[in-house]
Amino acid sequence: MNTSVASTPVDQPRHVERLITGQPTSDGAGVKLVRVLTQDLQQRLDPFLMLDNFASDDPKDYGAGFPDHPHRGFETVTYMIAGRMRHKDSAGHEGLLQNGGVQWMTAGRGLVHSEMPEQEAGVMEGFQLWLNLPGRDKLCTPWYRDIQSEEIPEIATPEGVTVRIISGESQGGDGAVKGAMQRPASDYPTDPLYLDLHLPGGGATFSQRLPATHNAFIYVYRGTVEVVNAQGAGSAVPLHRMAILDNEGDGVMLRAAGTAPARALLIAGKPLREPIAQYGPFVMNTRQELMQAVEDFQAGRFV
Ligand code: CO
User: Fold this and answer.
1) Residue 287: CB partners within 8 Å, gap ≥ 6?
2) Alpha carbon of 284 to ligand 1 centroid (Å)
3) Is this prediction's pTM over 0.70?
4) Residue 185: per-residue pLDDT
5) Tag placement on the chain: N or C end, fewer CB within 10 Å?
């Protein structure tokens, strides 16, 4: 799908509140990655709990993968830019996540899964976002869906921007998740927007309306992106930086800096405003619920 739809005008674009440099770390069995959204930003970027960026052409950095590990209380959204990763979980789901595809997994009351590379060479690049669930849905039935690259709606604006709509709505089109998803949890009170934007060089602007209530950020993974103000001036967000956007105005305007093309994720959601209690892969509302999660996991009560 590739339709041409004019950008929705924005009168009062948001500004950059803060630029964030991710923390290099490793997770799973030693996969090197950059943790862009860290625990100290969970309140500010509620309902998002974490964003990891993995990108390497050295199999030593990713080959060990993410063997069996549990999750409870939230959702993981994995977006592969390049590479192949096989997912298996204790609820009996299995799927291959590859170039341009997304896996949306609702951990709910708990499951154990593995995410293992299916390549011994080449580039492995992608993102994992953690999206919180409201307290009433934290113990819902685990669920997951693999979304192949060709199932992700892709829109070309007249300005030449390509918009891949993973979740939410943009330029009049629904995302892969908003349109087709049937998960056990009641609904999406967090109204998540997840866009992958490919911005050509030369000043083409992309506009996205955003409710002021929604917390929003961009993460640049190619080139340099500018957050454009109402006067047309740009504030640069360099490669591999996250820009937290302020909650003023009615949307955001972005463009690639200069003549080189750029790519960025634009992610936004309505905050849950609930207490966040995290212990590793468990995210609940209270310490008591975390202790219960550990006890249930140790007793083998995750699916
Ligand atoms: Co996991």
Assistant:
1) 277
2) 16
3) yes
4) 53
5) N
